[in-house]
Amino acid sequence: MSSTEPVPLSPTPRSTLTRSKERGRVERAELDAVLDTGLICHLGVVLGDSPVVIPTVYGRDGNTLYLHGSTGAGNLRAAVDAEISVAVTHVDGLVYARSAMHFSMNYRSAVVRGRAALITDEDERMHALRVIVEHSAPGAWDRVRPPNRKEMAATMVLAVDLTEASVKVRAGGPVDDPADVAAGVAWSGVLPLRQVFNAPIPSPDLGPDIETPADVTARVSGGVVTG
Amino acid sequence: MSSTEPVPLSPTPRSTLTRSKERGRVERAELDAVLDTGLICHLGVVLGDSPVVIPTVYGRDGNTLYLHGSTGAGNLRAAVDAEISVAVTHVDGLVYARSAMHFSMNYRSAVVRGRAALITDEDERMHALRVIVEHSAPGAWDRVRPPNRKEMAATMVLAVDLTEASVKVRAGGPVDDPADVAAGVAWSGVLPLRQVFNAPIPSPDLGPDIETPADVTARVSGGVVTG
Asked: How many CB atoms are closer than 10 A to CB B12?
């Protein structure tokens, strides 16, 4: 599960794009880039006979995507040893076209499919939790209290191999019909979007000697989350 | 399908929260608020025996959520007359806690479940496309070329009733263990996030007499998309 050897992206027919192929990406590094800059994923599981899509946090280590949650979470229990899908999407801009059907969005997306395995080894479970926390809060793990035995017992950790995934990227302006361009029917262009951090809000019960750590302030001054 | 009579949220057991109930929302207006401020949804369908999650645009009219896509899109064809799930999630902040397992995110999410119906009536299909375009580009439909017969023939429109949904909202600071607060182990607080628009980028082939429309410039000066 924790091999870090790169693997080819999309070796299976069901994860190979058949439409809008020009948006498809085939390099494994592009999958990692989409996953590593996302904050949440959308996990799809089959519950009963029906799909359900749940937003959740995640982390990546090499070819493994880690998910976690409460042992009491029915949606997550349904994922154990089952086929699942995980999507991570960044919206980079709204594409205004000259005709309704050419409106679009600029985005980067990854859709992973695979079987979710329940991790039972305590060392790998702890490692996975570190990977997940460090994914959304890089630099935080080493300064906080690690999970205790009770918290570990209440937590389920799942792993999915990143061997089957589709990555799509759309960038640039609208693709208008030449007749609409010639007719000059409407404005067209892109309205770019990005996520930014605001100033951190310290907890009111913080001691006066605890300053905002550098890994937090660096994110704010860096400004952009994605885009 | 296009009834605008409000319905209660989550009337079914499977869409009623059993965990973290304090995050659950029961008013229908809160579902609409999450859906109406989102730009994309994640659609979950079962393809073969496996779930797949796809990012896509959408629109809402009353109790109906509309989706669309190419008639050639296998993922969307799999949704016709089938159980699906649609999730819309806003991430509002990263919650830094004093202990690893209390890290969290502030978010607003809606998870819809239901059966997707293929819309065949041409008037409703056109109406749905207007709803979808106006969802991400309000004010744009009336100034652009509407779909022509060929485009309509290549487009599939699906509708899902908004009668079964879970809405969750987390806001505020970390919920730390009292012992960790007393020990003063680490900084804790919230790093708020928001999406903002950048200046619009007009298409290079725009005629000189076509100015950026007010509905586009208003979004930029408004600044915030969500949050």
From this structure: 11
